[in-house]
Design a protein that fits this description.
It is built from nine helices and ten strands. The chain has helices spanning 20-28, 71-84, 103-115, 131-142, 161-170, 189-204, 243-250, 255-272, 292-295, and strands at residues 6-14, 46-52, 55-61, 89-95, 118-124, 149-152, 173-174, 214-224, 230-240, 275-284. It is globular and about 60 Å long.
Length: 302
C-alpha cells in the first residue's frame, strides 16, 4: 500500500432533485447515475469510484429523500438512511434556492445527528441565487449542526466541485484501495444499460408517466458483425403501471419508443465503447411499485 494513502466510503444524502447524481457524475467524470430534471431519479444505491493520487473515494449515491407514496418509496428512503450509518463521510446536499430548512432537510439532519458521521454540507445551484442568499443558508445550517465544512457549488457552472474531493480526502483515514484504479463503478453492464434507458424515458416522457417505469434487460449478448466488428445485442422491457402510460411510452407509430431507444443507444455506445443493437418493448405491470417480487432488486442486502 502506498504510504499515507487514504480510502473510504462516502454517502451523498439529500432531498429529491437537489443534484446529487449530477455531482457524482461530474466528480467521477463518467455517467454512473441517471440524471433527469425530475424527482426520485435514483432508485438504487450506486457506487461510483474516484481515484486520486493519494486516495480512493467510493461514493454511494442514495435515492432522494421524499414522502413515500408506495412500498417502493419506503424502500428508497430506508436504503438512503441505512447506507449513511456505515460510511466514513456523509455529503449532505441542499438546494441554494431554498428559503428555509424544510421538513425533508430537517429529517435528514436528524438522521445525520444520529449517525454521528463526519458530514460535509454542499449547497448546490448557487448559480441561481445571489451571494447573500447563500450566506443566509450557510448560517441557518451551521446553527443546526457542526459540519466538517460547508461548500457552495454549481454543477452547471462547475464551481467548487474539486473542493468537495479535497474536503472528503481530508476527512478519510489511511487505508487500501478497495477497487482497481481503472474502475469507476461497481455496477454491472446490465445495470448501466437499465439505468440509461430509464434516464432517457425520464427526460422524454410526461410528468405523470416516468416514476411508474421499471426497466429490465431480458437478453444481452456480444457477437461479431459480418465485418467482424464486436456488437452487443440487447433486448429490454420497459414496464409501466397502466395501459394509458403504455400508449404514451410507445408514441404515435412508435415514435417515442424509437426516440428513447436511439438516445439510450448513443449514450451506451459512448459508455461501453462498442456498437449496440437495442430492441425495446413496453409491458403493463399494474401496481408493481407495491409488489414485493419486484421490489427485491431494490432492497439492500442484509
Amino acid at each position: 500500500m502506498k504510504e499515507n494513502f487514504k480510502s473510504g466510503f462516502v454517502s451523498i444524502l439529500g432531498r429529491t432533485n437537489v443534484g446529487k447524481s449530477s455531482i457524482i457524475n461530474s466528480l467521477v467524470g463518467e455517467k454512473v447515475a441517471a440524471v433527469a430534471n425530475k424527482p426520485q431519479t435514483t432508485r438504487t444505491v450506486i457506487r461510483a469510484i474516484v481515484n486520486r493520487p493519494n486516495s480512493q473515494i467510493i461514493f454511494v449515491d442514495t435515492p432522494g429523500i421524499h414522502k413515500p407514496k408506495s412500498k417502493l418509496g419506503n424502500v428508497m428512503n430506508e436504503n438512503a438512511f441505512e447506507v449513511s450509518k456505515n460510511v466514513d463521510v456523509v455529503v449532505f446536499v441542499v438546494d441554494a434556492t431554498s428559503n428555509e430548512i424544510g421538513k425533508g432537510d430537517k429529517l435528514i439532519l436528524e438522521k445525520i445527528k444520529t449517525a454521528k458521521r463526519k458530514t460535509i454540507l454542499v449547497i448546490n445551484k448557487i448559480d441561481l441565487v445571489d451571494k447573500a442568499k447563500v450566506a443566509m443558508l450557510i448560517d441557518l445550517y451551521k446553527n443546526e449542526y457542526n459540519f466538517s465544512s460547508v461548500i457552495p457549488v454549481s454543477t452547471v457552472k462547475n464551481i467548487n466541485l474539486d473542493v468537495i474531493l479535497e474536503e472528503i480526502e481530508k476527512n478519510l483515514n489511511e487505508g487500501p484501495a478497495y477497487y482497481d484504479i481503472e474502475e469507476y463503478t461497481d455496477q454491472t453492464t446490465r445495470q448501466l444499460v437499465e439505468e440509461t434507458i430509464r434516464e432517457k424515458a425520464l427526460k422524454l416522457l410526461n410528468d405523470e408517466v416516468p416514476h411508474g417505469i421499471f426497466v429490465e434487460v431480458e437478453k444481452m449478448k456480444k457477437r461479431k458483425t459480418m465485418e467482424n466488428e464486436p456488437i452487443y445485442n440487447i433486448e429490454a422491457t420497459i414496464y409501466c403501471l397502466r395501459n394509458s402510460h403504455k400508449g404514451i411510452i410507445i408514441g404515435k407509430n412508435g415514435s417515442m419508443l424509437k426516440k428513447i431507444g436511439t438516445y439510450a443507444r448513443q449514450d451506451l455506445e459512448k459508455m461501453l465503447g462498442i456498437k449496440i443493437n437495442l430492441k425495446l418493448w413496453v409491458k403493463v405491470r399494474e401496481d408493481w411499485v407495491n409488489q414485493d417480487s419486484f421490489l427485491k432488486s431494490f432492497r439492500l442486502p442484509k
